[in-house]
Amino acid sequence: MKEGVLTWRPIPGFQMVQTSWKEGERGEIEGEFRGKKRGVFASVSVEKKRDNSDEFPTSEQFLKHPLALLALVPKDAALFAAGAIAGAAAKTLTAPLDRVKLLMQCIVQTHGVRFVEGTTTKGIGFIEAITLIGKEEGIKGYWKGNLPQVIRIIPYSAVQLFAYETYKKLFRGKDGELSVVGRLAAGACAGMTSTFVTYPLDVLRLRLAVEPGCKTMSEVALNMLRDEGIGSFYRGLGPSLLGIAPYIAVNFCIFDLIKKSLPEKYQKRPESSFVTALVSATLATVMCYPLDTVRRQMQMRGSPYTTVLDAFPGIVARDGVIGLYRGFVPNALKTLPSSSIRLTTFDTVKGLIEAGQKEFQKIVEENKGKLCRIKLDVNPKTR
Question: What is the pLDDT of residues 48-57, one digit of tens each?
Fold first, then answer.
């Protein structure tokens, strides 16, 4: 609340005869200026100094403007919750396709055939993988490993979104604008940051999904610590960082640029966000999928690949170039709706948060205007 000082100059024939101020009906302070002969010259009403709690919206105002309640939730916390819910739902709905993709990428090791034996065994196809899972493990097999995936996506989404917004601020130019290169750099850094933080959970998810005999995350983790050491939780981190950096960079950059190029009336519409996310995810997946295949095979127990330079020619020699895209179809079917749902949810929540903050600020300004009212009434008889 703003403070002010009321001053006046002596006027012949007038004096302030009231030695104290009194409180009015609405809590304001009132006083009068009286002339020696002419009676009341003017009355002044000034609101008392109050703290900011008087400007805070009342429960009645929140009921009338429920969207303003979103302003009470910190922006980062609101985005975290939205990302967690959207990510968990998307991952659960697309878990069967993800399981098929993982099985197609790692089928050689899964069925006990080791790379080091020099086998030329080829991988299996999409339909064969679906049939194999259903035959050997039943319906539940399609969701095997989904729990650690859902647990992983909650911090992953939060870290990635927060990091992306932070890096965008860092890469802005002197004019405050973010260039295409700046967007790509922000997306790449955000992808690597979130991957590094949550990578052990990703390794556990993979092991639980494709290795027989393991039923819980704790069992997998203990076996890895006992047999392979702590370093096993970060095997394949290098190609993972190299794979996620361009994927997130391309995905986020294309999404932002397309949304920005749309007419303003379409930018806030969920269907526009969904289509835009679908396009950006498709392009990013086609460009970056081979690195994902390399990463998965490097994570497996007994893999002969220690570097990306070893893995690429090894996979091509065994399965041909098509081996780098093994599992691409189920991955695309899983990634496209998952990414679209996630980005659309974030975009929609951002719009709701901004609208809630504007609504909240509008109420605060209205309340502040009432508190800062200074009323001056002049007695018409003295004119």
Answer: 445 556 678 8
